[in-house]
Amino acid sequence: MKKLRIKNFKCFENTQVEFKDLTILAGANGAGKSTVIQVLLLLKQSYDIHSVSLDDMNYLYLNDYYCELGTVDEILYAGYEDDIISFTFESNDGSIREIICNGESKNNKLSISKSNPNDIENSTKTTTKFLKDFDFISADRFGPKNYHHADGNFSEMKVGKFGEYTSIILNKEISNGVFVEKLNEVLSFIFGNIEIEPKAIDEANIFMYKIRNTKDTNLGFKTPVNMPYGVSYVLPIIVSCLVRLYGREKSDNLIKTILIENPEAHLHPSAQSRLGIFLSDMANSGLKIILETHSDHIINGIRIAIKKETIKNDDVLFNFFEQGEKLGQNTIREISIDKEGNLSDWPKGFFDQYENDLMDLM
């Protein structure tokens, strides 16, 4: 996906947001980052429920696994002149699809009045590729847990929005030497001495993993609740990336998209920076990654990755969301980056709080 235009949805009257291989959504609370994310989740969960192509979809489901948006009245732009909600997706191949909803609802389903592609074959094919291999990892993902149950939502390629299927994927890939080698390599890069040991109780449909954070093999593996919390919070992100590139069920015919909220949760600043470098490497390896972050350390890790040529600067885009004083005045400013990791613009509110606080202390 190259561009998304949003009309009459939540805080946006008519707004466009662009995407690249690595797209960062940054800005103050309430500026619209979550609104963009919810558009993507709304389409994804509706596609999963229908199990049909976009041409045959009649509704967008407002409340299900990926997001719970309430009623149509709650998602309709407050200053609307008409009650038409539309989303327009433009792909890199030039295909465009506009989904138009007339504001009518039935059982909290938003009625689709039209789904207009400019090129039926390419639009359907591209959008389907985007929606089939799409993983969302939310800000309120689970922290350390001693075990997880498999359920009907489990997919070979999805860690789940809470990270609830991470241990299942680990157990399924444990004999995959390439995957395990890459996993340990990434964990060592971000944290130092960290190893993961997956376990399963098949008869109880229970999956778990243990962690060791020392080179001393005499100390053994411990349950996640007795190990650093940051490992459990970032593990779903790492596994979601690696399973798409090195997993047994990986597909080279799909657009592999991972949408991540607050990847920095519970991580030391140095680990946040290294996570930014890792995600840059994953985007350069063929994944489409969308990050919503409040961490200047994640941002700086991405800048370092660009300077070290881990990823090309032209493949990275920072979208800075600014909240207006009045309804309809929220804006999205694109910030590009050069080969040395320098940003084209540094607007007020864009990760400048450290400097602002220092000025107050002087």
Quick structural overview:
The protein has 362 residues and is an alpha/beta fold. The protein has helices at residues 33-50, 72-75, 120-132, 166-172, 177-191, 229-246, 269-284, 296-307, 353-361, and strands at 3-9, 12-18, 22-27, 59-61, 85-90, 96-106, 109-117, 134-137, 148-149, 195-201, 206-212, 257-261, 288-292, 316-322, 331-335. The protein has a six-stranded antiparallel β-sheet.
Structural overview:
The structure is a single chain. This protein is of the alpha/beta class. The protein is built from 9 helices and 15 strands. The protein has 2 domains: 1-133 and 251-362, 3-Layer(aba) Sandwich (Rossmann fold), CATH 3.40.50; 141-250, Alpha-Beta Plaits (2-Layer Sandwich). The chain has helices at 33-50, 72-75, 120-132, 166-172, 177-191, 229-246, 269-284, 296-307, 353-361, and strands at residues 3-9, 12-18, 22-27, 59-61, 85-90, 96-106, 109-117, 134-137, 148-149, 195-201, 206-212, 257-261, 288-292, 316-322, 331-335. The strands form 3 sheets. The protein has a 6-stranded antiparallel beta sheet. A 6-stranded mixed beta sheet has the order 8-12-13-3-14-15, with helices on both faces. Helix 7 links the parallel strand 12 and strand 13 (288-292). It starts with a strand and ends with a helix.
